[in-house]
Specification:
Layout: H1 4-12, H2 14-30, H3 41-47, H4 59-70, H5 92-103, H6 111-132, E1 139-143, H7 146-164, E2 173-177, H8 182-191, E3 194-198, H9 208-218, E4 223-229, H10 241-251, E5 255-258, E6 283-286, H11 288-291, E7 299-303, H12 306-313, H13 321-324, H14 345-354, H15 356-379, E8 383-385, E9 393-398, H16 403-415, E10 424-426, E11 429-435, H17 443-455
Parallel strand pairs: 2-3, 2-4, 4-5, 5-6
Antiparallel strand pairs: 1-7, 6-7, 8-9, 9-11, 10-11
Helix pairs in contact: 2-4, 2-5, 5-14, 6-14, 7-8, 7-12, 9-10, 15-17
């Protein structure tokens, strides 16, 4: 790129721009993050206007616009009272190293171009594989998120099933439950595959008994994958993985476990028994940017037999022969997409800096806070638990409220920049929901939020 303005910025403004960027990053990591609140597009047009001009505004002004005008309209997902969806609360080490990764121009798709990065990412993947109980030969890749992780695993599952199927048979059905993440339905639509739902049991779990009935009704030859969930998004429910694994082995079906949120609980000894049977999975995902304290976008995708995934995903072209004919590990052979950043490096760096015991302790702490929230809700006569929790998602109702009350309450919390707690829905009922994955979330935060439900009047 050439031109007077670009050259001037590159050679004379680099020092001051670097200082501004690094100072902002350090300050953002140090401070107790403000929750902030969104603005409308009209408000942003009025405040910010057009920033992309022919001559450029210069680094200082661009940083001022971002820091003063844009950043305050983006919610801080690492705020301790951000309890909606599944938050992201990266460790200081992971956030800082994300700056390094961005500045290093590392291509993380092949060993030839990024050997050290791929090696480090694989160390982090191996730690997760050991938590799951996968064999020494297991491996995978970090993808942008659980949606691509699930899709990539299911593509590998279908390719494997069709390669083994008798002539004339093309298995094209995924079996899951209504509690499965929305990305499973999306994957089925993208793949033009059928999706068969298994009824949940009384505890809202997928079980082997219910799965077997659906498999027998469909015909096992039509199915290429069964998806179980280790921590549903809405309730944090862990399916009966052991019985599901047994049925998958009985019928010779690919067993995929979506642990995008809840898979991190494998590092917590207090709840490890919830995951019994997960060691039999053929593929598994977990998002370190959820409960493993990494920055966006980071999903760990693992395969029991990576060769099956490589057969499904490796892209072939003359200019790629130098990669595809090589024996080294190329991450792009194991998921959708060719170009990739080394998105697993901040997670690796944080594990290396802090040690795995710190991860277990942080996860156990969030479980303690969730347990406290559950007991605090039971203690208050105007609140009622909807279901006992498995992990760190707590769903409850405010007696006497309708949907409008919940939304008015939630909107008021955000308008005051006090907390971000959006309602959820289940069986046609609007409910309140906490998703607690931030080690900075305290018992005092829980009490403060619940107190507002008592003081906030119904209609």
């Amino acid at each position: 790129m050439i031109g007077p303005a670009y050259d001037a910025n590159k050679h004379t403004d680099l020092s001051s721009l670097s200082a501004a960027v690094i100072d902002y990053a350090q300050e953002r990591i140090r401070l107790a993050p403000p929750l902030d609140r969104p603005l409308t597009e009209a408000e942003l047009i009025e405040r910010v206007g057009q920033t992309i001009t022919a001559e450029g505004l210069g680094g200082g002004e661009a940083m001022r616009i971002f820091a003063d005008e844009l950043a305050p309209t983006c919610l801080s997902t690492d705020h301790p009272r951000y309890l909606s969806f599944i938050p992201c609360a990266p460790s200081d080490a992971a956030s800082l190293f994300d700056v390094v990764v961005g500045a290093s121009s590392i291509y993380g798709g092949s060993w030839l171009e990024g050997a050290g990065a791929v090696y480090a990412e694989n160390l982090a993947l191996r730690w997760i594989a050991d938590l799951v109980g996968l064999p020494a030969g297991a491996g995978g890749v970090f993808t942008p998120g659980g949606t691509i992780g699930n899709l990539s695993a299911l593509v590998a599952a279908r390719a494997t099933a069709r390669a083994k199927a008798p002539a004339g048979l093309r298995p094209n059905t995924i079996v899951a439950t209504e509690g499965a993440h929305s990305s499973i339905k999306s994957a089925a639509e993208v793949m033009d595959a059928d999706l068969a739902e298994v009824p949940l049991n009384a505890e809202s779990r997928l079980t082997g008994a219910n799965l077997r009935e659906v498999i027998l009704a469909l015909g096992a030859e039509q199915v290429f994958a069964v998806v179980a969930t280790a921590g549903t998004t809405n309730f944090g429910t862990v399916d009966d993985l052991a019985s599901v694994a047994q049925v998958c082995q009985e019928f010779g079906l690919w067993f995929h476990v979506d642990g995008a949120y809840g898979g991190a609980g494998l590092a917590a000894p207090s709840i490890r028994e919830l995951y019994a049977g997960i060691e039999h999975c053929d593929s598994f995902i977990v998002d370190p940017h959820k409960w493993f304290f990494a920055p966006y976008d980071c999903c760990a995708l693992l395969y029991r037999d990576p060769a099956l995934a490589r057969a499904a995903h490796t892209q072939k072209a003359g200019y790629l022969d130098v990669l595809t004919d090589a024996p080294e590990w190329n991450p792009t052979d194991y998921s959708i997409g060719l170009t990739r950043r080394a998105r697993g490096l901040p997670f690796w760096f944080s594990l290396t800096v802090n040690g795995t015991h710190a991860y277990s302790a942080a996860i156990e702490h969030t479980l303690d806070v969730a347990r406290f929230a559950e007991e605090e809700i039971k203690r208050r006569p105007h609140l009622e638990l909807v279901r006992a929790r498995d992990l760190t998602v707590v769903v409850f109702r405010r007696l006497g409220w309708d949907a409008g009350d919940y939304y008015r309450w939630s909107d008021a919390l955000l308008a005051d920049e006090f907390a971000f707690v959006v309602p959820t829905a289940h069986n046609g009922e609007t409910l309140a929901r906490f998703a607690i994955v931030n080690p900075q979330t305290s018992q005092e935060d829980i009490v403060a939020i619940l107190d507002t439900m008592e003081s906030h009047p119904a209609r």
